[in-house]
Specification:
With 378 residues, the chain is of the alpha+beta class. It has two domains: 174 residues, 2-Layer Sandwich (Beta-Lactamase); 129 residues, 2-Layer Sandwich (Heat Shock Protein 90), CATH 3.30.565. The protein is 50% helix and 19% strand. The chain has a five-stranded antiparallel β-sheet, sandwiched between helices. β1 and β2 form a beta hairpin. The radius of gyration is 27 Å and the shape is elongated. 28% of the residues are buried.
Length: 378
């Protein structure tokens, strides 16, 4: 083990403190931020990051940083996905220490707003089953010195400890999700097998009442009640559908977006094309991703109900500090002064709930563009 080679008592104490710091219970996203910060403190690094590997094991799906303020991060642009020196650590699966990043053969270009960096230390974070979860990347010690052998040993030992904590946090998260999914499935069965059937029974009883002798006022009330029952049943079925969809949250966001769009093509006969920025999964937490998918369904349903379109183009991109969803159709457009329907109001309200934005651009005969965006997850 790398920690056996650490002779400095202060460095050993610092390593133990770092391990204790990240050992507390918490959400995985919070834990990853603590790991990056603790690794920087351990060796006195100015900048640090934890790149989480995607399922293919060759690119980064998430990039958690420390030392770069939010304004600079936004100015840098899209987060890295594993090219250049970062990709070298991914490809070899070994520790990489570089005294001059710019002179390394794998060095790639730097975005204009990117801070200057010279010294580099990359360490794999390997879980208990031998899987590489990601890599710790550290640059530039605060004292200006290159990273040392002891720095390398300390971060390597810390990476192994961090991997164990990640394993535990992942297991806790999976157990919570499993319990939650079982409860959702039970609720869906209860809604379908009991509640909807009872509502159908009430509806049949009201329809039988209509067959009797009723005055016009009473008949109108019964018909109103039947209409309300139909709406309620449809809403419950929508809820069941959303619960079933939640079971797919383990799938990549791009897969779920394409699934929703494929359903529209299959059920409504509207040709739908999809464009998604690479790595967008890492930019949204679970609640934001769920809201985006709901917004997409609402937007596509709006197209199906009103647009009379033959083609829809869906785009999901990262724009600055936001993730932006656009749905563009080639339908009849919206007439000036037309009332705002419930679907558009729902889209506006859902964006506002996440401090996002929503706008509609349309003209009669020229189709409609819906633009819906929410902030990226920190």
């Amino acid at each position: 083990m790398a920690y056996h080679r650490i002779r400095d008592p202060e460095r050993l104490h610092a390593l133990i403190d770092a391990m204790l710091l990240i050992g507390a219970d918490g959400q995985l996203s919070t834990l990853l931020g603590r790991i990056v910060e603790a690794s920087c403190d351990l060796v006195g690094a100015r900048y640090g990051a934890l790149g989480v590997l995607s399922a293919d094991g060759t690119t980064l799906s998430r990039f958690v940083t420390h030392g770069v303020d939010e304004a600079t991060r936004r100015a840098i642009g899209p987060l890295p996905h594993g090219a250049g020196v970062l990709g070298e650590v991914i490809r070899t699966g070994d520790v990489l220490r570089v005294d001059d990043l710019h002179a390394h053969p794998s060095a790639a270009g730097w975005p204009t707003a990117h801070p200057a960096m010279t010294h580099f230390l990359g360490v794999p974070v390997t879980t208990n089953d031998g899987r590489v979860f990601g890599n710790l990347y550290l640059t530039d010690r605060l004292d200006g010195q290159p990273f040392s052998d002891e720095d390398e040993d300390a971060v390597a030992a810390f990476g192994r400890a961090a991997a164990l904590v990640i394993d535990q946090a992942t297991l806790r998260q999976q157990l919570r999700e499993s319990t939650l999914n079982e409860e959702r499935a039970r609720l869906a069965r209860e809604l379908h097998d009991t509640v909807i059937q009872r509502l159908f029974g009430v509806g049949l009883a009201l329809q039988l009442t209509l067959a009797g002798s009723l005055d016009e006022h009473s008949r109108e009330h019964v018909n109103d009640a039947l209409d309300d029952l139909d709406v309620t049943i449809r809403e419950i079925r929508t809820t069941i559908f959303e619960i079933d969809r939640d079971q797919e949250e383990h799938l990549p966001l791009v897969t779920r977006v394409r699934t929703v769009c494929d359903e529209v093509t299959a059920r409504l006969g509207v040709e739908t094309s999809v464009s998604v920025t690479d790595g967008v999964d890492a930019e949204l937490d679970r609640a934001s991703a769920r809201a985006l998918l709901t917004a997409l369904r609402e937007a596509l349903a709006n197209v199906a109900r009103h647009a009379r379109a033959s083609e829809v183009r869906v785009s999901l991109v990262v724009v600055g500090a936001s993730v932006e969803l656009t749905v563009r159709d080639n339908g009849v457009g919206i007439a000036p002064g037309a009332p705002v329907g419930r679907g558009l109001e729902n889209l506006r309200a859902r964006a506002a709930e996440f401090d996002g934005t929503f706008e509609v651009v349309s003209a009669p005969g020229e189709g409609t563009l819906l633009r819906w965006s929410i902030p990226r997850h920190e």
